[in-house]
Each structure stands twice: as C-alpha cells, then as structure tokens.
TrEMBL record, chain A:
One GO CC term on file: plasma membrane
Annotated organism of origin: Streptacidiphilus pinicola
Compartments where located: Cell membrane
Protein name: ABC transporter ATP-binding protein
Keyword tags: ATP-binding, Cell membrane, Membrane, Nucleotide-binding, Transport
GO terms assigned for molecular function: ATP binding; ATP hydrolysis activity
PROSITE patterns: ABC_TRANSPORTER_1, ABC_TRANSPORTER_2
SMART domains: AAA
Membrane topology label: Peripheral membrane protein
PANTHER family named in the record: DIPEPTIDE TRANSPORT ATP-BINDING PROTEIN DPPD (PTHR43297:SF2), OLIGOPEPTIDE TRANSPORT ATP-BINDING PROTEIN APPD (PTHR43297)
Family affiliation: Belongs to the ABC transporter superfamily.
Signal peptide interval: none
TrEMBL record, chain B:
Name of the protein this chain belongs to: ABC transporter permease
Family: Belongs to the binding-protein-dependent transport system permease family.
GO CC terms, sorted: plasma membrane
Chief place where the protein resides: membrane
UniProt cross-references to InterPro entries, sorted A to Z: BPD_transp_1_N, MetI-like, MetI-like_sf
Any GO BP annotation: transmembrane transport
Membrane topology: Multi-pass membrane protein
Organism the protein comes from: Streptacidiphilus pinicola
C-alpha cells in the first residue's frame, strides 16, 4: 500500500483504459432547459482505487449528485431531444461506461456498482416488503438463486447491517422501520450483490445526529469487510472527515480542490474550502467563536459568473488583480496529489491561510 | 378487520335508510304539499270517486304520512300486500312499490334491467380499462412525443363529447351508413342469441368506454408521470432491474392504486344506470327505467332506481376501501 494508490493527479482524456479501479475523466453533464443549458457537471476528473474512499463535497446544486448518477448511468434520455448531454469518460474496472450500451450499464448496476440514496423512506417502494426489495435486486443478478436462498441471503444482509430480528423484519414494509433502520435496510439492499463500488449520496442527511454516526461507522466497517471502493457525497465536511481517503470539493459543477483528506483539512488551498471548514462545527475547536458561513448563495448553473465561479462570494477575489473576474482558474498542483483551482498567488494564499484562516479553524 | 367490515355494512344500511327517507320525502310529500293527488297517476281513464277511494285504500294513501313511510320501509324488508278487500297486489320483499304504468311491483323490472345495465357497464369497463390505462401509460412513457399529443387530444375529445353525440354518430355511421352492424334490439339477450347480443352491445360498449377511457387515459398519464419521478423508481433502476420490471412492476403498482379507487366509484355509479347510453341505444336497463319513470311520472320506479343506484355506490365505496387496505400496506383499517 503506497500513497500512489490514491493518485489525484490531473487526468487527460484518452481512449485507453486507466490502471485505477474507477477513473472519471473530464465528465460533463449538461441539461437543456427552457431557460438555458444547466451545466450541472462541467469537467470533473478523479481516480479511485479499490478499497479506498472518496468524499465529494459541495453545496446543494454544485453537481455532486449529478456526478454520482452519471457514474451509475441513471440519467434518463441521454443524448435525446430535451435529454441531458454527457461527455467525458467513466472507466470502471477497465470498462468505459459513457459510451457503453444502456443494457451493459444496467447489468453493472446493482451488481458491480450500487448506490445508497439520501432519503430511505422515499427511496424504497412503499408497497413491497424490505425483504422483497432486497431479494429482487439479488435475484436480478443471480437468477440461479432460488427463493429460499435469496431470502436467507436477505436475512443475512439485514443481520449484517445491524437490524435486530432480521428474520421478522425481512417481511415488514419500509414504513414499519425507523429512519435509521430504514437506511440500514437501504444499505443492505445496495450490498446485496457485494458491489465493488458503493456510492452513498448524502447517506446521513435525512437522519438524526446520533444515528448519523452509526450509519457512517457501518459504512466504514462494511467497506473494510467487503473491500469495496466508496464514494461519499455530502455537503458536510464532517461526514467525510473520518471516512474519506481523498476529498474532492465541487463548486458550480467544477472541481475547485482535491487531494488527500488530511491535506484538505490541514492545508486547504481554496477559499471555498476555507469557507466550508469555517462553517463546520468541530469538537476540537479551541475558540468559542461563532461559525462563519460562506456568504451569498450558490450560483445559477445556467449563468455561472464569469471567470472563477466563486469570485462573487470570495472575500479575497480583489487580491487576484482582476483575474478571477475574467479567467476561469485551472486546477493546478499545490502539493503532492493536491490540486486547487484559484487565481490567488500561492504565497498570498498561504499567507491568508496561516494568518487569517488557520487561527479560526 | 371483520369488525371494520361489519361496521361499514351497518353504515351502508344507515346510508340507504337516509336515501330512502329523502326519496320518500321528495316523491310522496312534495305532491301532497302541491295538492296533486298521487292516486291520479294510478287510476288512468276510469277515474270516478269510488275507484279513487278504492285505490287510495289499496295503496295505503289514506293513512298518515308516517305510517305510509313505515309501511314503505317494512315492505322493503319483508314485502307487502296492497289490498282493498279482494283486490290484492302481492309485492314480495324487497318491495319498492307498485309501478303506476304497469300496476305491478317495481322490483322484478329493476332486477331484470340491472342485468342489462350490468352487462353494458362490465363490457365497457373492460374496454376503457384496457384502452384508457394502456393509452395513459404509453403517453406517460412517450411524454411530449407525437403519440402522446395525439392520445391526449383524442382523450380531450372523449371527455368533451357527450354520449348522445358520439353514440348517435357511431350508430349513424356503422349501422345506417356502412351497415356493418344491426341496430340494438332490446329484446335480444345473451341467452337467447349470444351472437346478435354481442354485436348489438358493441356500439354501446364502445360509446360508453370512449367517454371513460378518455378520463382514465388522462388520469393514468398524470399518475404515471408522478410515480416515475419518485425516488423508489430510481432505486429500482439503481438495482439494475430491466426497464420493463421498473415500469411494469414498480411504477404500475403505484399507478393502479388511485385508478382502482376511481374505477370502483365509476362502476358503482354506472350500475345505477347509464341513462344517456341506454336511451341512445334503446337498451332497457336501469338508466332507461329512470328516464322512463321521469317522463311517465312513475314515482315508485324513480324511487326504486334511486335506491338501487345508491346501494351500488355505497357498496362500491366499501369494496374500494377494503381493496385499498389490501393493495397499500400502509393503510390499516380500524
């Protein structure tokens, strides 16, 4: 195990299969609407190795979920009239998914890659029992399994995700489960075929705080047990703090910073990441100060601000000699495996961080 | 569950009692208040004071109103004899009264005619469910395509065009212009001549189904589009289920639930008589009886059809509620 397993160097688009397990290259996903084209994801690239965890962090509407749905191939009517336009490459274990046929991608869904959704109440069919919903996904990819074996498998999974009396709970409907139990059942459903890639889209947002920690622990334990790669999508840096090996910060459909998790927390290089860190409650925070919100609102994805999309909200935009208003910053290396897209000169940035930001964190 | 059903059945009885009271009130009290004598409707041309007095006694119209009402309710349950000395009309339970036109009990006519209405409603229901729901599903899946637009414009036409237009137009075209079908003969029954019965029912079925299919297509489309936007449909896709399972199983199950409710109410309402369709095609069902009763001032017949129709609607309501608990596990009856 070396650090290079979580390589985050800038990737370029090419037709060849990469060496890493999941490789996303220059992913773009644009939705035409009556008001204009919504550029939900506009050039995202990252790599994820087997058994590692990537955290994708950003505000609502930054393109996190669209990214994950793109990987799962869950966008509808891609390339059709009024449908989303997708480009770039998604390589999963040597297979390219954007150019692949819908049927090929469907067979991978639920088997090689699986997804845990945000709200487990609405994400489960109210009319079918939890067991039926797990079994259905299992037998879809294991048609040889008989009903008895599939049911036993479902009970085992429910037991594994920590649901008491799984042999009884398996025949209950989602509305008979509590919120936390429902999310556990959702995780069991995702794990039905032992997927090598697990995408958790805001897995704890709909849960109360005590349950959140349990669910995150569960995801971490299961990852170690099953050896899956995990992508955790969240707006809460606290969620990924303990879980993620790498973190990718998204803003306005673009990646503004990515790197190893400890670097993102100890030496963040983008003013937006500073903002996110400053607005995160921390137990180890020494000063009893108020949390600092990121001023303003997320940008419209139809009309992104010129230049750096973050500049209208950036307190340091005036120190870029006007560059941030005119030119889109490129992701550039700021340390080992650490990239950031910011016009602030490196020295200025580090000075601001050490003098103004770090003492507040 | 059993207790719930019993309670609801009691509810049905109470509802019917209320309907019976109101119809009785309207049809028996109103003429009295207007000083028009209901006896005149029975007596016909041979009216003389002796005959009028005789019929008054025979029908119990000489008794106080509350006693008449009591006799009416009692007749519904145990039957009743309309008697004036040796002049007796026996009206077995359930006695809905004596028709002023035929001077015979209303009930056997209702019982016979409900089969006509029933076969009209059942055949039409099959057609409108298949075509209405089918069109709605296709429209939802092909949203904003030419198919969708054509289907929805047709559905709009179906909702807007009255049966007495579509029915007559269809008759004129297929029966009298093209000569493909024979006019519907009300005396032909399924048992007497199945082939002729079927071809006679074809246009009534289609006419009635067109009206309802239009509503169902629009309802199905709207519900299906809502359901397709649900998170659990995305979950089903995320599990790698093929699209036909996602639509045919997960989406359809949720779509059909509200349709089942509307269907139960529609069918219950129709069994009380499809007045327009039956009269356009000269089918002697309950709807025909209702219109006939109104035009001929046959009050007991109108009361009978009303009570009968109320019974079907209340029962349909009950059945839909019970089915809902079966279909949707979140619904618990208590």
């Amino acid at each position: 195990m070396t650090d290079s397993q979580t390589s985050t160097t800038e990737t370029t688009v090419g037709g060849t299969a990469p060496t890493s397990f999941l490789s996303v290259r220059d992913l773009r996903c644009h939705f035409p609407t009556d008001d204009g084209v919504v550029k939900s994801v506009d050039g995202i690239s990252f790599e994820l190795e087997r058994g590692k965890t990537l955290g994708i962090v950003g505000e609502s509407g930054s393109g996190k979920s669209v990214t994950s749905l793109s990987i799962m191939g869950l966008h509808r009517n891609v390339g059709k009239k009024n449908g989303p336009r997708m480009s770039g490459e998604i390589w999963l274990d040597g297979q390219e998914l954007i150019g692949a046929g819908r049927e090929e991608v469907r067979k991978l869904r639920g088997q090689k890659m699986a997804m845990i959704f945000q709200d487990p109440l609405t994400a489960m069919h109210p009319y079918y029992t939890v067991g039926q919903q797990i079994i259905e996904g299992y037998r879809q990819h294991n048609p040889q399994a008989n009903k008895k074996a599939a049911r036993d498998h479902a009970i085992q999974l429910l037991d594994r995700v920590g649901i008491p009396q799984p042999d009884k709970r398996v025949d209950q409907h989602p509305h008979e489960f509590s919120g936390g139990m429902r999310q556990r059942a959702m995780i069991a459903m995702a794990l039905a075929n032992n997927p090598s890639l697990l995408i958790a889209d805001e897995p704890t947002t709909a849960l109360d705080v005590t349950v959140q920690a349990q669910i995150l622990d569960l995801i971490r334990d299961l990852q170690q047990e099953f050896g899956s790669s995990v992508i955790i999508i969240t707006h809460d840096l606290g969620v990924v703090a303990e879980l993620a090996d790498d973190i990718l910060v998204m803003y306005g459909g673009k990646c503004v910073e990515k790197g190893p998790a400890d670097k993102i927390f100890s030496e963040p290089e983008h003013p937006y990441t500073w903002g996110l860190l400053g607005s995160m409650p921390r137990i180890d925070r020494e000063l009893q100060e108020r949390l600092v919100p990121v001023q303003g609102n997320p940008p419209s994805l139809i009309n992104l601000p010129n230049g750096c999309a973050f500049h209208p909200r950036c307190p340091y935009a005036d120190r870029t000699e006007g560059l941030s208003k005119t030119e889109v910053p490129r992701l550039t290396s700021v340390g080992q495996d650490h990239l950031a897209a910011c016009h602030l000169p490196l020295e200025v940035r580090q000075q601001i961080f050490t003098e103004e930001i770090a003492p507040r964190l | 569950m059993l207790l719930y059903i019993l309670r609801r059945l009691l509810n049905v009885v109470v509802m019917l009692l209320v309907v019976a009271t109101i119809t009785f009130g309207i049809f028996f009290l109103v003429p009295l208040l207007q000083h028009t004598d209901p006896v005149m409707r029975y007596i016909g041309k041979n009216a003389n004071p002796v005959a009028i007095a005789g019929i008054k006694v025979k029908l119990g119209l000489d008794k106080p109103v509350y006693e008449q009402f009591w006799l009416y309710l009692k007749g519904l349950v145990v039957g009743r004899d309309y008697a004036n000395g040796n002049d007796v009309i026996h009206c077995p339970a359930p006695c809905f009264g004596i028709s002023t036109q035929t001077q015979t009990p209303v009930w056997p006519t209702l019982l016979h005619d409900v089969t006509v209405t029933g076969s009209l409603a059942a055949g039409a229901a099959v057609l409108w469910l298949v075509f209405g729901v089918g069109t709605g599903v296709v429209s939802a899946l092909r949203k904003r395509t030419a198919i969708d637009r054509v289907a929805m414009v047709t559905a709009l036409a179906g909702v807007s065009l009255p049966v007495y237009f579509t029915g007559l137009a269809a008759s004129a075209l297929f029966v009298y212009n093209l000569g493909w079908l024979q006019p519907t003969n009300p005396d032909v029954t399924f048992t007497s001549d199945p082939g002729a019965w079927f071809q006679g029912m074809l246009l009534p079925w289609i006419t009635l189904a067109f009206l309802f299919a239009a509503t169902y297509a629009r309802l199905t489309r709207a519900t299906m589009l809502d359901v397709l936007g649900e998170d659990y449909i995305r979950t089903a896709r995320a599990k790698g289920l093929p699209e036909r399972t996602v639509i045919g199983k997960h989406a359809m199950r949720s779509t059909l639930t509200p349709i089942m409710t509307v269907f139960g109410m529609d069918l219950g309402g129709l069994l009380g008589g499809a007045i327009l369709t039956e009269n356009v095609f000269n089918l002697h069902g309950l709807g025909f009886d209702a219109l006939n009763g109104i035009t001929k001032n046959d009050l007991p017949m109108i009361m009978g059809v009303t009570l009968f129709a109320a019974f079907f609607i209340v029962m349909a309501n009950l059945i839909v509620d019970l089915l809902y608990a079966v279909v949707d596990p979140r619904v618990r009856l208590a």
